[in-house]
Amino acid sequence: MTNNIASNSISRKDYIFSITIIGLFFFIFGFVTWLNGILIPFLRTACELNDFEAYFVTFAFYVSYLVMALPSSVLLKKTGFKNGMSIGLWIMAAGALIFIPAAMTRTFSVFLIGLFVEGTGMALLQTASNPYITIIGPRESAAKRISIMGIANKFAGAIAPIILASIILKDSHILEEKLTQAADAASRAVLLNEMASRVIMPYIVMAVILVLLGLLLKFAHLPEVDTDAEDEASGETNAKKTSIWQFPHLLLGVIALFFYVGVEVIAGDTIIRYGQSIGIAMESAKYFTSLTLLSMILGYLLGIMLIPKYMSQVTALKISTILGVVFTLGAIFVPADIVFSMSFIDIMTFKPIELVLPVTVLFVALLGLANALVWPAMWPLALNGLGRFTKTGSAMLIMSIAGGAILPLLYGKIAVNFSTQSAYWLCLPSYLVIMYYAFIGHKTGLKNAS
């Protein structure tokens, strides 16, 4: 039996308050993370990059998880979850401020430093918040709680690129025309400098909000949960373990999560540039990341309704991997010239918008539906029975977020050498790895695995 930490040591009032606070953090994760989807085409133009170079945006952001996750785990052991999360918010604020000199000098490497620092703060926040939400209540409903967090995360991610695009890509078609008509390098530089400066104010506002949230958390009552206490509930299985490397289901989970984060980032961060590459104007393409994240929100809602009452976390993971394979093949094989239109209201202007949507792009967006329940299902499976190793195991899972650094970069290289559509072949083996974990890997080394 799994020890129910929430019911044994945390009141219902504290439990609800804690869920609300962590939900706010997941909203922040989503808002900051999915800005990359619009930063990639923006910096590609402003810093005059090719597709491969532009995807260093995701590399700089996500590689920080690999570098900083274990140091984050060490820090959390000293500070506790709450103080560690405050520090994470302040580090993110510092990263946002680095965008100011980056924009003023239009230096891509400085933008990358800012993204790395933001990712460092996110690594600390994620290392704390993911195990917190997993073990604060019954483990069998952990995927349901993480799904609720996911809705907050992906709702923020759906609106973030639209908000940022409305500021930094306003009248982008006019700017593109002016850049094309620029008579000399000096004229072009003036236009690009003006474009780059548009990110300064949004990132100043973001930094101020992150600092204030860090202060708010510092003085809020957020109960600590003792992950070491889970060791007592793990019985003989955990008591005999002396190293984190003795949990093969965790190690396989780290590998599977690496590929999962890679395909999740590819689905969200390449879709705008993919739309542009097949002839879709930015007026329509800027909404494509939001479509991916709305698909994920649909998946999270299904998870909340179905888990654990109608299906287990494992079953949800199996179905997700199958859908991932199907949607990937659809994105690859459907011709780019098959399109349809849909109308909706722009959340910034409240004006009706006619969205031109190729079917192949729709399949990329639907990868969001396939991806939604993978993260919520894999965390409780991978952390199952870790006891006193939970924080270290969590840090290793956070390190696997580096998949979001490596796989999109590979996508960009394939896109340059072949095409943006054929580059989605990279997703197929990734989903097969996740499928192995769903059907077999999560049970490896566990005595009473279901």
Characterization of this structure:
- The protein has 450 residues and is mostly helical.
- The chain has one domain (5-443): MFS general substrate transporter like domains (Growth Hormone, Chain: A), CATH 1.20.1250.
- 74% of the residues lie in helices and 3% in strands.
- The protein is built from 22 helices and two strands.
- The protein has a two-stranded antiparallel ribbon with strand order 1-2.
- The longest helix has 50 residues, at 56-105.
- The two termini are 13 Å apart.
What descriptive keywords fit this protein?
Growth Hormone, Chain: A, two-stranded antiparallel ribbon, 450 residues, globular, mainly alpha
Low-confidence stretches: 1-8
Report the radius of gyration as a whole number of Å: 22 Å
* The named CATH superfamily: MFS general substrate transporter like domains
Proportion of β residues?
A: under 5%
Termini gap: 13 Å
Q: What is the count of DSSP helices, taking H or I runs of 4+ residues?
A: 22
Helix content: over 70%
Structural class: mainly alpha
Tell me the number of strands: 2
> What letter string, H or E per element, gives the SSE order?
HHHHHHHHHHHHHHHHHEEHHHHH
Major beta sheet summary: 2 strands, antiparallel
Mean pLDDT: 85
The CATH class assignment is Mainly Alpha
Net shape: globular
